[in-house]
Amino acid sequence: MRITLVIGTLNGGGAERVCVNLANAWVKRGWQVTILTTSQGSRPPAYSVDPQVKHHDIGKPRLPRAVEVNRDSIAPVVRGLIRDGCISLTRQLGLIAMLRYGILKTEPDVVIPILEMTNVRVLAAMYETGVPVIACEQTDSARVSIGEWQSVRKALYRRRARAVVAPQPSIAEWLARHGASACAIHNPLIAPPPMSSRCNGTRRRLVTLARLGREKRPELLVRAFARIAGDFPEWDLEMHGDGPMRDFIARYISELAPGRIHLHWFENAPYTILNGADLFVSASWVEGFGNAIWEALACGVPVVAMDAGAPVRALVRDGVDGVIVNTNSTPALASALASLMADDTARQALAARAPEVLTRFSIESALEKWDALLDKVAGRR
Fold first, then answer.
1. Residues 136-154: pLDDT tens digits?
2. Minimal CA–CA distance to 323: which of 303, 309, 341?
3. What is the CATH number of the domain that holds 46?
4. What global pTM score does this model have?
5. 194 within a domain of the structure (yes/no)
6. Which of 9, 61, 13 is nearest to 243 (CA)?
């Protein structure tokens, strides 16, 4: 089978990790797998890509070449957009044409774009090609709007996507209610390797791994920890990640809890960070699956998570392997953290059950579901 995965970049992030994990798993079967990025440029991927996986980059931003925008390529796209009432996408015609050319060069049996706007562009690019497209969502579509793209996404999912994969059943159900042929397949994440336990001495480690963006609410976490830091002098908060709020968060930390909150850059080896952590925290208000939460549980680290909807409630079993904070406030998060930071016995009990996530959401079961979907959409070739 020839599969082409399409994504914006292979920089650090949950969707990028999913893309690489799928590509690596499929190429080991002898399948021909290509990852097509739109704007990776010369930067190396954040994650290890199997040498047998082909990687091509469109080179955005640039103007399309003549071979990419010839009449035979553009006309089907324009016809399709007009027919489906998505004429606003003609503003993206240059990039759509580049995607069409790049994808068709790989001669795929099936195309799998990842992330919402890439899904829309690829569905438009594949008009009148006969190549099936499986769109792959990575966020909670019911909670996150993509603005003016929302209506064209619904139209193209309904009319052009052979299937839409969501990482959680509630997201798939929402997509199905809007006309998509949707199914749920949890993210295919890899179990942590055996590691000798890290010794922290007398210090206790509260860890978070998250993009420093509005949706992850890092400022709320800083406030919550600063609120209780004086009561727990042996505990430190480690924040690992990058994003548009980084400079603001760095200043916020220096104001509220200097020396107690340590801001680190994105790390592409999460298990190295999670090894020896005493507690993991997520303040996000939206998750598609919750990769970092899964990784923490897989390492036997109990989780305190703000309730970000069904994805978090599926991963974290409240009172079994973590605590879900149902009240959306700084005091509520601070209280939940303090309760577990003060209770070694409770943390150890939660930690003992946490690795069950490896069987509840295994990579093997995710790949089996992908196999069934690929058989249905494209057949084995």
1. 999 998 888 777 788 999 9
2. 303
3. 3.40.50.2000
4. 0.94
5. no
6. 13
